[in-house]
Amino acid sequence: MKIDPEVCIACELCVPYCPMEAISMKDDVAVIDQDECVECNVCLRSGVCPTDSLIAPELEWPRSLRRAFSDPMAKHELTGMRGRGTAEMKTNDVTGRYRVGEAGFAIDVGRPGIGTRLRDVERIYKRLVKLGAQFEEQNPMRQLLKDEKEGTFKEEVLNEKVSSAIIEFKVPSFKLQEALQELKECAAEIDTVFSVGLIDKVSEDGSMKNYELARQLGYHPSINAKVCAGIGKPQARF
Which of 3.30.750.24, 3.30.70.20, 3.30.160.250, 3.40.50.300 is the CATH number of 1-57? Predict the structure, then answer.
């Protein structure tokens, strides 16, 4: 995002709308810290500027990744989805991505207000690769990979900042403890925040093995269910 200094009247109305606090005043005009801006377009969509001085330029690679991961109206080329470009756990019952005996994860890296550099996402990804995690193929993280076996990203994307990004993967349930430990160690290494979504398939007896195991390991998972309303036929019961 850019601001036309010839049109800006320094009203400061746009300043509080930036989730990254990248807009400030300098020499009686609003300016945007281009390194901190994630191209989310919140300031522009707010319509608060009385002189239309906010300008959304055409973005070239790799800066275009900022908008793809931060603007909920932008689509990812790989998935065709808006926002973070992933269905997360919303379609699991229909697609059969997770089965009994598997632990699924949705790692939500970054948040509005802090964001994340893609180098921090790479740090998590590299640890999970060594764990033997099976990553979701229809996830925009894949287009960033330089070496899938090593979990390394293309060098030119590492310093790009985005509002948030999701890493989706699964491991056999017997690796749940190891996966949680890896993520705990990651938290001490990166310069942002992330939340851990643990995806569990409910057994026929109504039990949730991954949930119970996580509790036994000293974690405090909160149950948040999404119910399939018959939109599609489940592909995997077990």
Answer: 3.30.70.20
